[in-house]
């Protein structure tokens, strides 16, 4: 039996798996890594579609609605792994886009090697839970760092506007944040902040703020199961619980209460 006190634990893992159609309107309860080996698959994150050719992969965060299926006549074989643990939430905070990380085929060898290491350690008898946890952490850490590397954080607009905006929203997500006030703090127009944010992060500041607020709400709903919904809403930056419920359902496909029941 796995040591549940370890910071990162592997739930499911495999390779050369012939992948079929999967639809998860409510997302998956844990981090899920999927990488094409042969064939090609289509992967939707909400309404955005990505084609996963051989070598390409995606890490999808917990609770993010998604679906995927093989394309064409050739079977789609994949590597996969799912993870949970106390360090996983910390790794998610390092992701600029906290919903998913997309890996291009040119970077495939790094993640194939890390996944093989994980499979090898899982195959040892008796199992070394600590070594397995270390291998899982290395894979997740590389994936979250990869996303940061694909965003040019040394670009002047990121350093001067986008980075500080992200840091402020993460630190003050429970407060009443106006994007126009945030832009004023950074001495730029709202239009300019929207433009550079979208160019560098592929989201508007409002979309990013909603994303991190709902992500925070998910954690509260699961980790503090007796916390009232109106308190979860308030601690996630929503003064109106009814509006919070509407936003939460739009983002996840379920109400906050149903999400809590589903996760616990």
From TrEMBL:
Pfam families attached to this UniProt entry: AraC_binding, HTH_18
Span of domain HTH araC/xylS-type: 163-262
Top-level taxon of the source organism: Bacteria
GO MF entries: DNA-binding transcription factor activity; sequence-specific DNA binding
InterPro entries per UniProt: AraC-bd, Homeodomain-like_sf, HTH-like, HTH_AraC, HTH_AraC-typ_CS, RmlC-like_jellyroll, Tscrpt_reg_AraC-type_HTH
Signal peptide segment: none
Keyword Transcription appears in the UniProt entry: yes
Keyword field: DNA-binding, Transcription, Transcription regulation
Protein name: HTH araC/xylS-type domain-containing protein
Organism: Weissella cibaria
């Amino acid at each position: 039996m796995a040591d549940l006190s370890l910071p990162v634990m592997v739930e499911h893992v495999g390779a050369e798996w012939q992948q079929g159609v999967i639809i998860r309107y409510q997302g998956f309860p844990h981090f899920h890594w999927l990488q094409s080996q042969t064939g090609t698959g289509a992967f939707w994150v909400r309404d955005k579609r990505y084609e996963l050719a051989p070598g390409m992969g995606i890490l999808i965060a917990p609770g993010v609605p998604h679906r995927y299926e093989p394309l064409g006549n050739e079977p789609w074989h994949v590597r996969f792994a799912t993870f949970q643990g106390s360090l996983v939430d910390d790794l998610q905070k390092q992701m600029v886009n906290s919903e998913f990380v997309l890996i291009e085929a040119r970077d495939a060898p790094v993640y194939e090697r890390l996944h093989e290491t994980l499979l090898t350690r899982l195959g040892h008898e008796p199992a070394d839970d600590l070594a397995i946890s270390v291998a899982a952490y290395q894979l997740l850490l590389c994936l979250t760092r990869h996303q940061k590397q694909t965003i040019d954080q040394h670009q002047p607009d990121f350093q001067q506007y986008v980075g500080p905006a992200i840091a402020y929203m993460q630190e003050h997500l429970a407060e009443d944040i106006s994007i126009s006030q945030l832009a004023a703090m950074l001495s730029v127009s709202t239009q300019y902040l929207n433009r550079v944010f979208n160019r560098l992060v592929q989201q508007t500041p409002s979309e990013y703020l909603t994303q991190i607020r709902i992500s925070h709400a998910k954690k509260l709903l699961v980790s503090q199961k007796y916390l009232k919904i109106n308190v979860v809403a308030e601690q996630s930056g929503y003064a109106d619980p009814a509006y919070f419920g509407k936003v939460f359902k739009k983002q996840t496909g379920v109400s906050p209460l149903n999400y809590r029941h589903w996760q616990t």
